[in-house]
Amino acid sequence: MSLRLKALNAGLRLIARRYLAHVREPENLRRSFARTARLYAPVPWSWLLGDCLRHGGHSVSATWAMNRRSAGAGVVLYFHGGGYIAGTPQTHARLAARLAQLTGMHLCLPDYRLAPENPFPAAVDDAFCAYQTLLQRGYPPDRIVLGGDSAGGGLMFALLHLIGRKGLGWPGRVFAFSPWTDLTLSRDAAAGEAVDDPLLPAERMAELRDMYLQGADPDDPRASPLLGEFVGAPPVMIQVGSNEILLDDSRLMATHLRGQGVEVRLDVWPGAPHVWQMFHGRLPEADRALADLAGFIGAGSGDAPAGQPR
């Protein structure tokens, strides 16, 4: 564990975790997330482009992180974290820009609807619309990579479940950073007692879940993709820290996927906090994790599909 990682964990425990343990209003959390993200300017080798994804009468706004050196090799469809109540494409623009550089691909970040104003399954419907739009625009399924972090990682796996159930083409690769996959919380409580998460307060998870589900069944695979069906799905990579309350979510998701014949690479990083990849350029563990992910995805090449963002 690097000295920078030790310092980051100490700072998260002292400031961020205490704040998350007490903040009540989703709007306050959203503003705090946005302010923190503004400290990290987008990297210079990509630029951001607004878009509206439309399919079958449904639409969702999105932001693209465009790689200037990309030859149109495909797209990463990425879902931001924030517990289903916070986060935007802008909070994750810097991470998206770095992934665009490393993979040689463009990234599409849907601005899916947030709870409690838009409870489950609004976010899932937006994710499904986004994937269908990319197919409609001419991206072959195997040239689409699905990714996400935290709640966005759970949303991504929910989408993957729906892709299989609806008989759509599977994406080429799938990855998740510290995904939240079990909203029944049957395992999160035990995990929270077993580890000292430097960021996420375990006692707030049920409250967060309830703001999102608002009475919906947590056993629905679209809410808890740990209960989903994934036979035939493409290879998956999951990165998670060893001290996270969501560690069990990642481990059990990997086991569930393998039980259905899916190839899974699960990387547990000692001492890494929740979605530490956001600190790339400042944290060596983040840089190595993203480099590993880029190797898993592989740099794409080929002609751009007809339906570029507009």
What does this structure look like?
The protein has helices at 3-22, 26-37, 93-103, 122-136, 151-166, 188-194, 205-213, 247-259, 284-297; strands at 46-55, 58-67, 75-79, 106-110, 144-149, 173-177, 236-241, 264-269. By secondary structure, it is α/β, with parallel strands linked by helices. An 8-stranded mixed β-sheet has the order 1-2-4-3-5-6-7-8, with helices on both faces. A hairpin with a 2-residue loop joins strand 1 (46-55) and strand 2. Residues 189-193 and 299-310 have low confidence and may be disordered.
Number of helices: 9
User: What characteristic shape results from the CA principal axes?
Assistant: globular
Percent strand: 15-25%
**Rg calc:** 18 Å
CATH H-level name... which superfamily?
A: Alpha/Beta hydrolase fold, catalytic domain
- Count of all domains: 1
Strand element count: 8
What class, by secondary structure content? alpha/beta
CATH class descriptor: Alpha Beta
Low-confidence stretches: 189-193, 299-310
| Major β-sheet strand ordering | 1-2-4-3-5-6-7-8
Helix content: 25-40%
Average pLDDT confidence is: 90
CATH architecture: 3-Layer(aba) Sandwich
Rounded to the nearest angstrom, the distance between the terminal CA atoms is: 43 Å
Order of helices and strands: HHEEEHEHEHEHHEHEH
Largest sheet: 8 strands, mixed
CATH overall fold name:
Rossmann fold
Give the helices and strands, then pairings.
Blueprint: H1 3-22, H2 26-37, E1 46-55, E2 58-67, E3 75-79, H3 93-103, E4 106-110, H4 122-136, E5 144-149, H5 151-166, E6 173-177, H6 188-194, H7 205-213, E7 236-241, H8 247-259, E8 264-269, H9 284-297
Parallel strand pairs: 3-4, 3-5, 5-6, 6-7, 7-8
Antiparallel strand pairs: 1-2, 2-4
Helix pairs in contact: 4-5
